[in-house]
Amino acid sequence: MLFFSYFKDLVGREVTVELKNDLAIRGTLHSVDQYLNIKLENTRVVDQDKFPHMLSVRNCFIRGSVVRYVQLPPDGVDVDLLHDATRREARGG
Amino acid sequence: MSILQTQLKNKKQASSSSSPSPSPSDKPRVLDTAEIMVAGLRFFTERSDNTTAGEPVLDVDNGEELMHVQPAVSIVLGNRSPESPGTLYISTKQVIWLSDTDRAKGYAVDFLSVSLHAVSRDPEAFPSPCIYTQIDTGDEDDESESSDSESDETLDLSKIDEMRLVPSDPNQLDALFEVFSECAELNPEPVEEDEQEHNWIFSADQSGLETGLDDVDPEWDSQTNFSTIGHSNGNNDLARNVLELQINDQRFEDAEEMESNSSGDHQ
Asked: Is B154 strand, coil or helix?
């Protein structure tokens, strides 16, 4: 549940979601659920030549299981906090 | 017993982070047969009656419920041309489109295979506002161009990785999007249950018992007709004595199996 909590804190921020089919969508994180399904708003496709259809999309729902990476805003990453959280999670607490 | 197993399992899980013992997640995920079969888009023709007004037959035994019905929806598969208006049915498990004019025509895709859905309103990308979906075909290196050149006669649904649903009333799009989202959340990836571990512990107890029997008589394994070993050699009394001895020991419940085993022991 660590990353669920982490992504919840990023709601409202700009992220890039890279899917397993190589599609990368940039947008404002609208919401995330426990399965790491992601809703984005004001989306745009990073590689527009490859996926021209997605240009028209303003909001989208991405299935958590098809996400390969989420690129985060640099200032949205508190490394120390994440460190502690992962250690706590690893201890099972 | 089951409580003990659960405690053992919890203990194992709690310690797995610090010890190198394999946790359940390290095992290769066992795929449901159902899961393999539902990848991508498929034809759907099971209607509740044989008219075009018939609703799709859902898997109600497994809890599937109809969540939304949207009449007057066109469907666009890949880059093919739109197909005559039909009715969109959204259930807790899948998206189904049935033609209004041809009762033999219908498509369905499970939410498990819907990678992404979105509201598309840009007329440059597509003439009509629609729900845009990407479908996971389960094909890793698929060429998206391949489906484009195919004629209508050779429609290969397994290669369709995009689907558009065009309601005649664009004002329905946001509501449709929400229903899609709600149902997608009802269908997380099937997670490997811990049942395997339960089975393992359970069968370990059993196999421990059987191993004990085998240890008593190594030859027993090779005896296929195990019920007559003692009797055929006239060792009934001996066999019975040993049998009683072991029953008193309360280790075994299966007298039939035991008799053969114990008699074999004294050959």
From this structure: helix
